[in-house]
Design brief:
Blueprint (H helix, E strand, L loop, with lengths): L22 E9 L18 E7 L6 E2 L20 H18 L3 E5 L5 H8 L3 E5 L3 H9 L4 E2 L5 H11 L2 E7 L8 H11 E12 L1 H6 L12 E2 L2 H9 L3 E9 L6 E8 L8 H12 L5 H27 L4 E4 L3 H10 L9 E2 L17 E2 L3 H5 L3 E4 L5 H7 L1 H5 L3 E4 L5 E3 L1
Parallel strand pairs: 4-5, 4-7, 5-6, 7-8, 12-13, 12-15, 13-14, 15-16
Antiparallel strand pairs: 1-2, 2-3, 3-9, 8-11, 10-11, 16-17
């Protein structure tokens, strides 16, 4: 991840393809960064906040916001993938794909977090190195036996690692590419570290899913981009790289894609899946302004529906808690004005968040066990992308008549 930051609240050029004047279609108001949870002693202090203005490049389909959060924000981080059971099996399967690509060469994971993916690679006998600026998370990775180079990923740090460890046969980044404000500097670093016959693999939420399922909450100050495959292809072309394969991952982070890039000089012909996914994006209106105008109207209607449902529940005297103190959940409740008047508390499986408060709305965050202790009538599922898993986990809540309010893709009650 790069440390460079801009401060304007809107972009004047696309961060991927450099086309001018991305279209502003969804101004979401001022938000504190979604992962900037509040300590109890800071509850009375004002949080820094920044406009969350969602734009789209109509030349490549990149949904994007300006990168405004403070430099070095990711030196201490609170999200870990290991909190979700689904991610364990997903990364175990993904590790086998990377092992086959590496064929004994070095695998480098940019934004390696708590080491869940590389631990799977290590079990297969791979040579690995994580790259992450968050010291607290790197310590968790070390407990899994994963080595982490603690720094942002940029040309100088890539040169340093190449000198120490040699070129990487595989560079991978999962749910991190969307954090990068300066994509071109990041790609320069990729080209420094990647071997001539190496593969760069990006796993990232996909903008087509963002549009199709009204996933406006997946844009926040730490997630500055929602990628189309076309935007990645146009970005790669600046660096003599090309997309050689692509895979849709509909069950990961609300709908993601896995994209494989190689140097053009390697002469690898793109798989048929690449053309199919690009056609899917074009036929879905991803380069048409009207698509995003409709999306903005859908978001507004969603907010009205959710608040109406919550108001009716409160009028009935029902107790409501939120499940998931995620950054995407904070985007949703901040934009829709859902605060402590509606939600008594939030729960999350991530122990790093317990005892803290949500940004903007200042709702207390507790362990999942608080559901049994406080016995709310309704769980408002902010981590809706893991709803199937949450539903299965909450058998006791369901047995006593508890209901779930699931906000996306369409607000609904599930019993």
């Amino acid at each position: 991840m790069t440390a460079e930051r801009t401060h304007a609240s809107t972009l004047t050029t696309c961060r991927a393809c450099k086309a001018p004047s991305p279209y502003l279609f969804l101004p979401l108001g001022d938000h504190a960064p979604g992962q900037m949870l509040i300590r109890p002693e800071d509850l009375d202090r004002e949080q820094p906040s920044f406009p969350l203005n969602t734009q789209v490049c109509l030349e490549c389909g990149l949904v994007e916001i300006a990168d405004q959060i403070p430099a070095d924000f990711f030196r201490h981080y609170l999200y870990v993938p290991s909190g979700a059971a689904r991610m364990h099996s997903h990364f175990s399967d993904f590790a086998r794909v990377l092992s086959d690509k590496a064929r004994g060469g070095l695998i480098v994971d940019i934004g390696s977090n708590d080491g869940l993916l590389l631990a799977g690679c290590n079990l297969l006998g791979c040579t690995t190195l994580g790259f992450d600026p968050a010291e607290n998370i790197a310590a968790m990775a070390a407990e899994r036996g994963v080595e982490t180079h603690i720094d942002y990923f940029y040309p100088a740090s890539a040169e340093l690692v190449r000198g120490q460890r040699g070129e990487a046969k595989v560079i991978v980044t999962t749910n991190t590419f969307n954090h990068i404000g300066d994509l071109h500097t990041f790609m320069e670093a990729i080209c420094i570290l990647l071997s001539p016959d190496g593969t760069f693999v990006i796993e990232v939420p996909r903008a087509k899913e963002y549009i199709d399922h009204t996933e406006f909450d997946n844009i926040y100050h730490e997630h500055v981009s929602e990628f189309s495959l076309l935007s990645i292809a146009k970005l790669a072309a600046f660096f003599d790289l090309e997309v050689t394969d692509a895979l849709s991952l509909p069950d990961i982070h609300g709908g993601s894609m896995r994209v494989f890039l190689n140097r053009k000089a390697a002469g690898i012909a793109p798989s048929p899946a690449v053309a199919e996914m690009l056609e899917d994006e074009l036929s879905g209106g991803m380069l048409e302004q009207a698509t995003y105008d409709r999306l903005a109207l859908d978001v507004a209607a969603m907010g009205v529906d959710i608040r109406t449902m919550l108001d009716e529940m409160k009028a009935q005297g029902l107790k409501i808690a939120g499940y998931g103190a995620s950054a995407r959940g904070n985007t949703l409740i901040t934009h829709f004005g859902i605060d402590g008047r509606y939600l008594d508390f939030l729960v999350d499986r991530n122990t790093l968040k317990h005892g803290l408060y949500s940004p903007n709305t200042r709702i207390p965050i507790r362990p999942v066990q608080a559901i049994e202790e406080e016995q709310p009538d309704v769980l408002f599922v902010l981590a809706w992308n893991f709803f199937d898993e949450i539903f299965e986990q909450q058998a006791a809540f369901r047995a006593r008549g508890g209901k779930f309010l699931v906000p996306l893709p369409i607000p609904r009650i599930v019993c």
